[in-house]
Design goal:
With about 325 residues, the chain is α+β, with helices and mostly antiparallel strands. The chain contains eight helices and 18 strands. The protein is globular, with a radius of gyration of 20 Å.
């Protein structure tokens, strides 16, 4: 059976999309960007327990001020949207890509018993910043921000601005730190710039997550994607020891009794890929789909992500998006 493929690659970042300073910040420096996300707060006496029953990851184990990455699934185990969840006391804040807003709002409205938990969208009231690059944490420290341990959140007031700083539990992750503020964080952005974390575009966030091999809703993740197909196991996005959650039966069965038929791999091209052709071909067979391709100016090469079938021989090259490419072990950054 050959893998179905769309007509074109969902996203291609080339020299016209990604300015050199963005790429430099991702590869060797520090940058701060505004992500395209939605934010929901869940509160009430049963907020933590209710969210625990929706997420693939373990928010109860994270304890107070803990942060986890996971997803909300359909009953059949398909990803509806990925989510970063932060627990603060008895409340949980959910941060998801804007493309997942409808799915997340629908899940919350249908699943939260009003006497135990309620939710409110606070997207317009909370400013979210993400720091990226290998020197991001260093720059945040110089700017006077608190530096929580991995998988934790810390609160502080910087320049009169109350904020929460969140650090992913995974390393590498698509961002080094996330800053959330209920006020305009202009002063915080100024401090970060003086400390060496320069403003970058959302394209820099995209490059950052590709280089660490992180899936994105609308590219690697669609309505037929299982968590294990897009590295959720590797990035800590699934717990196999927590209690029940929506879609758990399919995910657990695949983990304990079978294997995913597809997986996410990195690609490196010797020449530019063709956006109009997303097929991955080996031995004249279509064995996968290119989901994202990006030009990395500091490296002088094209890299990308692809969902490929299990039987692909990853020790040999492929024709991906119409050009010869090598299969690369993710994440890219560890080999540079």
């Amino acid at each position: 059976m050959t893998a179905p493929a769309p007509a074109s690659i969902p996203l291609v970042l080339d020299e016209t999309h990604l300015i050199p300073s963005d790429a430099s910040a991702v590869v060797s420096g520090a940058g701060v960007a505004v992500p395209d996300v939605v934010v929901f707060d869940v509160s009430g006496p049963g907020a933590v327990g209710c969210v625990q029953g929706l997420l693939t990851s373990d928010i109860e184990k994270a304890a107070d001020n803990g942060c986890v990455y996971g997803a909300v699934l359909t009953p059949k185990g398909m990803i509806q949207t990925d989510v970063w969840a932060t627990r603060r006391g008895g409340e949980v804040r959910l941060c998801a890509p804007s493309a997942g807003r409808g799915a997340l709002a629908d899940v919350l409205s249908r699943s939260l018993p009003p006497r135990l938990a309620r939710y409110v969208e606070v997207t317009g009231r909370v400013e979210v910043l993400r720091l990226i690059g290998p020197r991001a944490v260093e720059a945040a420290g110089r700017a006077g921000l608190p530096l929580p341990e991995m998988g934790r959140a810390a609160t502080a007031e910087v320049g009169g601005t109350p904020l929460v700083v969140i650090r992913p539990s995974q390393e590498p992750a698509p961002f080094a730190l996330e800053i959330q503020s209920d006020r305009d964080a202009k002063d915080v952005r100024g401090r970060l710039a003086q400390a060496g974390a320069m403003p970058v575009t959302e394209a820099a966030l995209e490059l950052s997550r590709v280089l660490v091999g992180w899936p994105r809703l609308g590219a690697e993740i669609d309505e037929k994607t299982l968590p294990q197909e897009v590295r959720f196991d590797e990035v800590g996005g699934v717990s196999y020891t927590k209690g029940c959650y929506v879609g758990q039966e399919t995910v657990a069965r695949l983990h304990f009794r079978g294997h995913a038929n597809r997986g996410l791999v990195g690609l490196e091209w010797g020449e530019a890929p063709e956006p109009a052709n997303a097929h991955v071909v080996q031995d004249d067979r279509t064995v996968g789909t290119v989901t994202t391709a990006v030009w990395v100016e500091p490296w002088g090469t094209w890299v990308g992500l692809a969902k490929v079938r299990r039987e692909l021989d990853r020790t040999r090259g492929v024709i991906a998006a119409g050009a010869p490419a090598a299969i690369v072990t993710l994440p890219f950054g560890l080999r540079r």
